[in-house]
Specification:
about 40% helix, alpha+beta, 10 strands, homodimer, DNA-binding, 4-stranded antiparallel β-sheet, Jelly Rolls, about 20% strand, 2 domains, about 240 residues, Arc Repressor Mutant, subunit A, 3-stranded antiparallel β-sheet
DNA sequence: CGGTCCCTTGATATTCATCAATATCAGTGG
DNA sequence: CCACTGATATTGATGAATATCAAGGGACCG
């Protein structure tokens, strides 16, 4: 028996407040809980879904992390996002009915699976769930807007600083340390996400370390000077 | 009296099929129509809202175009999006309750205003409206994902080609010509959006023209070689 | 008609990608 | 335990792409 796959009810889940159940009352929560599936944890590099797959479920990361990417003909995949505990993967497929990207575990990762048809049917009954779903999607749109300000920055230093601040703030929201964390993705993934060569990512990390902004050891990152990093990122909303 | 501000019911609106009412049945449509406000057209450069404003409404572009941007301390605003007829502005504020960016008309523009509290209340009654709202937000998330693949491209040529294709496909969806259109935003805005200097935008346009990919005259763009543009953009989902 | 903003183009400086070599780390099997 | 292997990361050298500085032309607006 694998402890990490033990069934944890939504009400006792550590990311409860960031997840769908937040704002759903006790009685309704039990019904929501009834449709949540909790598969075995996934090994690193396993896929949650592939681009083009029929949309069945959205997935909440419970532990570990996920990257999404768009594979391309020439084999150069483009990373479109990273997801940490409490974040929801697969929302991009709701309207289209098919996944617009592939989703892959960056490390050993466990998720909750929420079959969307059952979620949708349940929302017919529970107006609070319908509202909550709308909130979740609205939050996602808000986040995407913030990411636009990261990817729209003109220099490698600005983009990387803004990305680190974005990760930091997301981890903080989830109750993790905001100044020290382990990047579960490779330099290559970061470069693909930000539109930079992976060597550039590596160099900027080294430069930030020399400047006293960061301590970087492999994938472990410690932010030494949050304010300085904000200045590098550019004042435009790097919170 | 201004003809463009004449009251057009949702059912007769030209962007009906891209807008909220799509999929709402006749009887319910009348009720939805009842809460839609149709303000006078806005002059170019007028703001729909400013960052930080309380969230009251979402806005559907009926004619003209809107840009959204994040103003920053040093005065260097960062553009986060462009919106054409049938597209909905303001969704990023739904969950937070305050606008995360400012929205400005790029030309004479008319919108429909949908007061969200009334929309939300109506959705309690009309399950079809609740579903439709979810669809709208899901579509927005899907679009944002596509934008990530534009902004994540490594070169100026790729980003600009991908952006043009993205605009083209959005205009086509709305029944406009997909190979010939007028950009309502400045080179500066495009540069800010894509993380490029405005001179680079200008140069790449000229280069594309010399290569026979485009005809560019001021803000008027004609795509001469759609397939070639797709190749430049890189195969990764530039549709 | 004059002024302002926007766009284009050129020259130069800077940043970034690419190529390449080396180092490090996580597994794997002897 | 250690050697071996392949993936990952760092760093340097070089060339290409992009930003910056600068000038001039053209469109739009009062």
């Amino acid at each position: 028996m694998n402890l990490t796959s033990a069934k944890v009810a939504c009400r006792d889940c550590s990311v409860h407040q960031l997840c769908l159940p937040n704002g759903i009352d006790e009685a309704d929560l039990a019904r929501l809980d009834g449709i949540v599936e909790r598969p075995q944890p996934m090994a690193a590099r396993r896929h949650l879904y592939f681009m083009g797959d029929n949309f069945r479920s959205v997935y909440v990361v419970r532990s570990g992390s996920i990257k999404t990417y768009v594979p391309s003909l020439d084999g150069v995949e483009q990373v479109t996002g990273f997801y940490w505990p409490g974040e929801i993967v697969g929302l991009e497929a709701i309207t289209i009915g098919a996944h617009a990207c592939s989703a892959q575990a960056l490390e050993r990762t466990s998720v909750c699976e929420l079959p969307f048809s059952r979620l949708d049917a349940l929302a017919d009954d529970l107006r609070s769930l319908g509202r909550r779903l709308l909130q979740i999607l609205g939050r996602e749109i808000h986040r995407d807007q913030q990411v636009f300000t990261i990817l729209g920055k003109p220099s490698a230093e600005q983009r990387i600083a803004a990305m680190l601040l974005n990760i930091s703030s997301r981890l903080k929201q989830r109750g993790f340390a905001d100044h020290e964390f382990r990047l579960s993705m490779s330099r290559h993934d970061i470069g693909s996400y930000l539109g930079l060569a992976y060597e550039t990512v590596s160099r900027v990390f080294s430069r930030f370390q020399r400047q006293g902004l960061l301590l970087v050891e492999h994938r472990q990152v410690c932010i030494r000077d949050m304010a300085g990093l904000r200045i590098v990122a550019g004042s435009a909303l790097a919170r």
